[in-house]
Sequence to fold (451 residues):
Amino acid sequence: METYDVIVIGAGFGGPVAAKKCADAGLKTLMVERSGIPGEKVISGLVIPIYGFLFGPAFIRNGNPPIERPICSVVNRIVKGGKIAFTDHSLKVPAPVVLGYSAYCKPFCTWLADRAVESGAILRTSTTVTDLIVEGGSVRGVITETGEALRSRIVIDSGGTQNMLSIKAGIRKKFVPEAIELYMIWDFEMPKADVDRVFGTSMEFFHAMPEEKIGAPLGYGSTLYFFTYRDSIHPGLGQFLITEGKVPNVQKLLRDYFSNFTATVTRWKQDIAPHAKLRGVMWDVCPIYAGLLPETREMPIYSDGFLIVGDAAGFEAAAFGDGVPNAWFSADIAADTAIEALAAGDTSRSFLARYEEKIKADPFIIHTISDGRRWNMREILKSRDENEFRRKVRDHWGIGAFRYGNMGGPCLRAARRAVAEDGKSISSWLNMFRRYYANWEQNRFDRLSTD
Ligand SMILES: Cc1cc2nc3c(=O)[nH]c(=O)nc-3n(C[C@H](O)[C@H](O)[C@H](O)COP(=O)(O)OP(=O)(O)OC[C@H]3O[C@@H](n4cnc5c(N)ncnc54)[C@H](O)[C@@H]3O)c2cc1C
Fold:
């Protein structure tokens, strides 16, 4: 039976980052992915926020991954009686600087997995891990759906939200329903010239009081987001499984909200709909863990011979539901920990405790999973104060997103740390902004193994 140093479960956003680093360190690394092509089964929006690129693994920043559109601003609209009652456009940066990049999961994750394979990691696709091999309380490998046993000295679980392996192994528990949001995304074709004219390099959010019936009650879900791509747009919205103490029929509600939106909101009817053609439902009611409950945050993220990263560890950020940056950061930290543990010949729980220490010291991970901005919108439901509504929209999703207590503090701390570690950080960020923007303009990216 072949034995690996490290087995990484999942080739989504986090897995390839961990696999590449382990392979670069000379470890015999296997990445096991249930889908035929990396990213094919990853469910996401997706705009990857810029802090992931600036402070995540250098190979992403220095590469040419396939992106769909640079996102330089967030336009926040408050809808009242179908009309736009208030627009906040305060969160914007001048191109080529961006707030994030929109991307498709399949090509982006394939690009990441290609980099891991280039470094020497072995990728096995169409292989589902169904169980962990546990010996004397230590994880020693994985079992696949055919019953094949694959042994390793450490397993890194990057299997995402819906993967139950750590639950099956008794390490973690299921997320509670209060912490789960169901989400739905539609896919509309729209000629690039129209996306450029109607949205430019913005993504757009629509907020409203419950009586508008175009989204979950404030604070109980994601307001309606328009993710903008090269020549398509993806409106998406979500609601928590439990809303105001009740269990509503969220699957039906999400469809109803979107039908009401398209039937009543002038911005849609006049500016967007004439140029957009429905291609299909991109993700039909999928769960996102988006909770802020301490009991879900306190679940273990490591065990003997086992490290859990990204969504599987509950690291999806609570305010926007963005989880790619934390998947990258945690995968990077897990790989460092695995490398140190294997060098020391000690993969025990007590040695791997340093993984949690480093996660806690990361400027973003704990901050973003404890970020109460979205849940705090619930206060508006009680006060019904319009000025407060506008102020909170600007403070949470507009320029206030960069307040020190929101994302400003973590970004400043991470920037200071990056510059102290590498004097060339600033020039590498500027180069990335320029190169990514030029790549997008020319629609030219690195070739993928699937091309
Ligand atoms: C609707 C929606 C919208 C989102 N929008 C955004 C956004 O705009 N920006 C953002 O940053 N984040 C967004 N996220 C979150 C983001 O997609 C995740 O945080 C991110 O994908 C987490 O990376 P990961 O590696 O932990 O898991 P994933 O990327 O989900 O990767 C898990 C991988 O493991 C594989 N896998 C699972 N189980 C097994 C198994 N048993 N055996 C083998 N392989 C397995 C899966 O096929 C998959 O490839 C969104 C999520 C959802 C659901």
Q: What stands out?
A: Residues 391 and 400 are 9 Å apart (CA to CA). The pocket of flavin-adenine dinucleotide is lined by residues 9-15, 32-35, 41-49, 128-129, 158-160, 163, 183, 185, 283, 286, 288, 310-312, 316, 321-324, 327 (CB under 6 Å).
